[in-house]
């Protein structure tokens, strides 16, 4: 889908970096319909979830956490609707979340009865704070909750209709002693005994992000080295964004050995959100890595997302925000218009237009109206670009400065952006047909 190759800095490698993880997309799992949905003021209706699910499939997600079926009627019915109407493509695996509590696990299995293939995602909180304040249980007791849940999954999966695999998350991991988190995960793995042929997922959530990204990456490295049955384990990360570092956690965590990322479109999710998969994937594309996800019509995806979630995409949200490819300031516009001219003559070279980290067309965005826009900050380069590009009027070099100042002046006085038609009108009135 993506046409462009990008100018790339050299990638230094460090001792801790897993080299085979640099140029490879991880396994992606969308948690939009679960973590994203549970954080909405008004959670999605069944029809809205269906539409969102279809969009995720079109984008290319092969693993989709569809909800927490025991949490509400809609969640339960959504799972049943997908399964009973054969709406899950063969190459897509659905995933459902359950707490490690008997009645919830049982209800979850009922919800996915007959699924062609489903991941049952088991979690319990393991942090010091939750052990002491919420559960008032010892480390051993909390570990036992995970073990009992894991056993029940084994038992029910054996009896159930359908093909199931398992995922375990030590929820509230950032507040958990790392060695203890590994101990609990290994105890769960001892129950499941995953193999290369029948893998289990161990998912490390930054339920509430409290550490710097290199600290998290070091924890991931420890986990990667100390998990049992490693060949049979998919090591997954589930970054949240409380410190604004969800992307860094994911990128460094992948380099430290993780195989899989759980996140959402545009970073929806609890509090400050889950990690934004649009940004992660497009960061990869900009490094020449096939992300295996298709964001080549980001405008349509963004509109659908906004309509279904009733959330707004921040104008400066990487790649998807309305203003992220826009330049108002004169020096930026000048460099961009020169960069475009250079690019026309050098299509065989990697994309390197100044101030545009990627080609907006790779996201289905246009140069017209998206990139060079005129206000009081703009300069002659931008104004000349608009007149030539939109109206075929090449402003002579000697006039450009004057024309630029004219537009700046009008915009400053009116305190408003000038759209291309208005730029043309002002130009005609002053320079072509003066009164
Ligand atoms: O953030 C979190 O810890 C979660 C778990 C349930 C995986 O969403
Ligand atoms: Zn989460």
Automatic annotation (TrEMBL):
Involved pathway(s): Amino-acid biosynthesis; L-leucine biosynthesis; L-leucine from 3-methyl-2-oxobutanoate: step 1/4
Molecular-function GO terms, alphabetical: 2-isopropylmalate synthase activity; acetyl-CoA C-acetyltransferase activity; DNA-binding transcription factor activity; magnesium ion binding; sequence-specific DNA binding
Gene Ontology annotations of biological process type: L-leucine biosynthetic process
Residues of the Pyruvate carboxyltransferase domain: 26-299
E.C. numbers: 2.3.3.13
Transport recorded as keyword: no
GO cellular component: cytoplasm
Quaternary structure (record): Homodimer.
Family: Belongs to the alpha-IPM synthase/homocitrate synthase family. LeuA type 2 subfamily.
Protein role: Catalyzes the condensation of the acetyl group of acetyl-CoA with 3-methyl-2-oxobutanoate (2-ketoisovalerate) to form 3-carboxy-3-hydroxy-4-methylpentanoate (2-isopropylmalate).
Name of the protein in its database record: 2-isopropylmalate synthase
Species: Acetitomaculum ruminis DSM 5522
Lineage: Bacteria, Bacillati, Bacillota, Clostridia, Lachnospirales
Part of the intact protein present: 6 to 440 of 666
